[in-house]
Structure formats: C-alpha cells, structure tokens
Design a protein that fits this description.
Layout lengths: L22 H9 L1 H6 L8 H6 L4 E2 L1 E2 L4 E2 L1 H12 L3 H9 L4 H14 L2 H8 L8 E5 L4 E5 H10 L2 E2 L2 E2 L6 H6 L9 H25 L4 H86 L1
Parallel strand pairs: 1-4
Antiparallel strand pairs: 2-3, 4-5, 6-7
Helix pairs in contact: 4-6, 5-6, 6-8
C-alpha cells in the first residue's frame, strides 16, 4: 500500500520515519492524487525524475490545505529511506535547486547533527532565487534563506523539525570545528593586500635620497634663502618708506600749524589797529564838540 514503508527500512529518532510528518498533513498527502498517481512505486533512482519537474516548494496551500508536490516527494523519501550517499548527491546537485532543497529537507528530518551542519552549512553560499508557495500565493525566496530556516527555526514548510543542538554547544564538546565563512577568507585576503601596500609605501619612503634629488633640494634651499632675503629687504624698504612718509606728514602738519598761527596773529593786529583808529576818531569828535560849546558861551 502507499502508506507502507519499504522492506528493510529502519526507525529514525526512535520512531517510524513517516511519523516525522504530522498525522493530519500525512493523511492529506496520502489522499492526494499526485502522491497516488506519480509517487507510487518510485525508487531512489526514479524519484530524481519527479524531483527535476519541481517548479516550487512549500507545505500546504489553498482553502483545503492541499499538499505541494515537494511535500509528497518528501514523504516518499521517508518511506524508501535512500542511502546517505544518494541524499548527499541530491544536496551537491548545483544544476537543479529544488533537488538540492529536497535533499537538504530530508537530511534535516533524518540526519545526525554533525551531518546536518557539515552538509547544509556550505549551502549558505547559494544565493539563487526559488519559488515558495504559501497558503494563498507564491513568493520569491533564496536558497540560503531556506537553509537558514532549517538550521535555526523549529518549523519549515509547515512541518515540525526534530530538535537540533546549537552549533556552539557542539563546538565546546569538540564535536564540530569552528565554521569558516567565505567572507572571512575574503577579508583576510583584503587585509593581506592592504599590508603589502603599506609595506611598499613604507619601503619607498625609507629609500636613501639620490645625489640628483640632493642637488635639487640644495637648489631649492638656496632659492628659498634668496627669496627670504629678498623678502626681508623689501620689508625694510617698505618700513623706511613708511617712516619717511610719516616724517613728511608731520612736517606738513607743523607747517600748517605755523601758517594758522601767523594768520591768527595778523588778524589780531588788524583788529587792534581798527580799534585804535575808532578810539582816536571818538576823541577828536569829543574835542570838537567841547570847542564848539566854549565858543558859543
């Protein structure tokens, strides 16, 4: 029957491998026409042909929560339990991204923590776009997003994932080596290039100065000295000119002052003369009056 495991299948995580998918979702998969028609009698070799035809992945969709083809093939893999080498080949397939996702999802459900980290972490460098079907629509994701969902979260495609120990815990127990990212390698290369550039620049600066450059520097020093002396002479000339100008200005000011004083003196003299004349005239008038009076008497 379609809900039976293949002969020789073993329990995974201490239970029937089909029980890794929830009972309600599993029942819907078994009742699905695609599972009955296209997944019946498949083996590990023939299942690849069905996986190549995948154009999307996800859990259930629509109002009736219909399972996707991706989920149907996952249940079929749990029934036939392919060998580890076949699953690894699924994961390493670079031409068909949905075969890679199918192998990664199956390994996350059934594999050991060491194998999961060892074979899924390199897929962080796969940035290809993939189609993910939600309940009501299709959205675009990337392969590395799905891998991060498998390694970090507890649910994926509507399925509860088995418990996965943290990477730091496995590293502290010396079960896993520290993960080396491609970005870290690129950063190390950039740092090495920067160090080489700094070294070459420091070597250029520390090279001895040639005789030609020395003569140039001497000529430059001589020019600088001559220029400095010329500047000093020009400054002295300017200061002397300014002094002469100041002296001449002071002389002009003194001359103007003397002229003003002479003018004031002349004015005062003229004023005194006019006053004296007026006085003499008044005296003469008074005398004439007195004489006339005496005559009349």
């Amino acid at each position: 029957m379609a809900n039976k495991n293949h002969i020789g299948s073993q329990s995974i995580h201490g239970q029937n491998p089909q029980n890794l998918i929830d009972k309600i979702v599993r029942k819907r998969i078994l009742d699905c026409n695609y599972f009955k028609e296209s997944c019946f009698g498949l083996t590990a070799a023939t299942l690849v042909d069905r996986a190549i035809q995948l154009t999307e992945f996800g859990g259930t969709y629509g109002g009736n929560n219909k399972p996707t083809k991706f989920l149907c093939l996952t249940l079929k893999l749990l029934q036939i339990q392919p060998e580890k080498e076949i699953v690894i080949e699924f994961i390493r397939n670079e031409d068909q991204p949905y075969i890679r996702l199918l192998g990664a999802f199956y390994l996350r459900l059934t594999g050991k923590p060491i194998d999961i980290y060892q074979y899924l972490e390199p897929l962080y460098n796969d940035y290809r776009k993939i189609r993910f079907r939600t309940i009501d629509r299709i959205i675009v994701k990337h392969v590395d997003e799905f891998i991060d969902e498998l390694l970090v979260t507890e649910f994926s495609c509507g399925i509860a994932l088995p418990l996965l120990p943290k990477r730091l815990l496995l590293e502290s127990m010396d079960i896993l080596k520290p993960r080396i990212s491609i970005l870290e390698e690129e950063l190390e290369e950039l740092e090495a290039e920067q160090q080489l550039k700094n070294k070459t620049q420091s070597d250029k600066l520390s090279k001895p100065i040639s005789s030609h450059s020395k003569s140039r520097s001497n000529s430059r020093d001589h020019k600088n000295r001559s220029n400095s002396t010329n500047i000093v002479h020009n400054k002295n000339r300017d200061t002397s000119r300014e002094r002469h100008k100041d002296i001449s200005k002071e002389r002009d000011i003194d001359i103007d002052r003397d002229r003003d004083r002479d003018r004031d003196r002349d004015r005062d003299r003229h004023r005194h003369r006019h006053r004296d004349r007026d006085r003499d005239r008044d005296r003469d008038r008074d005398r004439d009056r007195d004489r006339n009076r005496n005559r009349d008497r």
